[in-house]
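This week, study the protein below.
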Amino acid sequence: MSRSPLIARTVPTLRRAVDNLRKRKATIALVPTMGALHDGHVSLVRLAKRRASRVVVSIFVNPTQFAPTEDFGAYPRTWKSDIAKLAAEDVDIVWYPGAEAMYPQGFATRIVPEGPALAGLEDRFRPHFFGGVATVVGKLFTQCWPDVAIFGEKDFQQLRVVAQMARDLDLGVKVIGSRTVRERDGLAMSSRNVYLSPRERQTATTLYRAMKESAGRIRAGQAVAAAMARGAAMITAAGFELDYFEVRHAATLAPVASRKDGPLRILVAAKLGTTRLIDNIAV
């Protein structure tokens, strides 16, 4: 039988709850989210439960990672169904701060990441994004002091940025990536998929098909540039406005010229109608 998690809305309440778990020798996993939870988030929680004895899930739609032109106000918020999902998974604590708890009056400190945050992928199109992510995740780590933190691989550059930050700042948190959860037709699960019209939803699967075909060509020995050009053409022909479709070194996100340059990852971001989708796969 599922139990309701403790819901903490202030830092002192959260820290008392975490301290109580620590006194019982618990190990703690953190799953940071912005809510609107789907099966992909549930998979993160289940991995967290395998990696620690207690699980904290944060729900916070972080305003500092949205540009003024982006969808902060419209971002889906589904509190009741989120809590029901987390209760069904026996999550221990839900950290649900308001903006005033995360960014109180007079807040004046930011984390400015470099390295993978300047890889020329998401940062080219959303230069504000990783500073906002690093700052809020840094706060989440110091508020919850988890042993491990679970992030989805769908936001692959974000995963690399957060892992680098945790190492560089000696935060004592092991950052673990969890594989992307997909719909039956291959579309990566995302809270923003609800914005797609029925026709756009059918078209959206092109991203996954293009990545898989390009990866197959690269594995078969075709030149990287030629394989990626064919995939990009497939995406634009389907009606997407393409931001990037690139193959990078999977660990560093550095550009590569051939399959011999190391473990490879294909990453894509493209807009379909008003919805921007991102995805990636290993080559």
Summary: The chain has ten helices and nine strands. The chain has a mean pLDDT of 96. The radius of gyration is 19 Å. Strands lie at 6-8, 28-33, 54-59, 93-95, 148-152, 174-178, 241-249, 264-272, 275-282.
